[in-house]
Amino acid sequence: MCQFHDPAAAPPRKRYSRNFDGPWRKTPDRLFGTALVRLYQLTLSGFVGNSCRHLPTCSEYAYEAIARHGLWSGGWMALFRVMRCGPGGTHGLDPVPEKLGPEFAWYLPWRYWRCSACKK
Q1: What pLDDT, in 10s, does the model give residues 74-109?
Q2: How many CA atoms lie within 13 A of 60 on its CB side?
């Protein structure tokens, strides 16, 4: 007996992506920011090399931070993360916080430097 494969009966395959795939509001600023990060990942990232000392990498962190918190907040978080990744900087696990506290106001962008300590 031969059994035929029915594609309609197969469960949908989960698409693998190294970037954040959770739910996020797709506003124009977030789409623009994540598109810039993705453009970097597809073009320049291969020339820079695999030298990020954090997990997730700096570009994955930037993508998720912008997707979760918007271009302004996520962009500042990503900039400070890249600065922490430099020589003499930090290393190890550094996930994007799910929610930002009230001390991280949009008009106080320098406070995002401490965002690596504000996990959950």
Answers
A1: 999 999 988 887 777 778 888 888 888 888 888 888
A2: 15
The predicted-structure confidence for 48-76, as pLDDT tens digits, reads as follows: 777 778 888 889 999 999 999 999 999 99
Contact status, residue 98 vs residue 65, Cβ threshold 8 Å: no
DSSP state of 97: P
Nearest to 99 by CA among 57, 66, 69: 69
Closest CA to 62 of 31, 90, 34: 34
- Does 120 have pLDDT greater than 50? no
**Dihedral of alpha carbons 50, 54, 58, 62, sign:** positive
Comparing C-alpha atoms, which of 84, 108, 94 is closest to residue 64?
A: 94
Strand, helix or coil for residue 54: strand
Dihedrals phi, psi of 70, to nearest 5 degrees: 95, 170
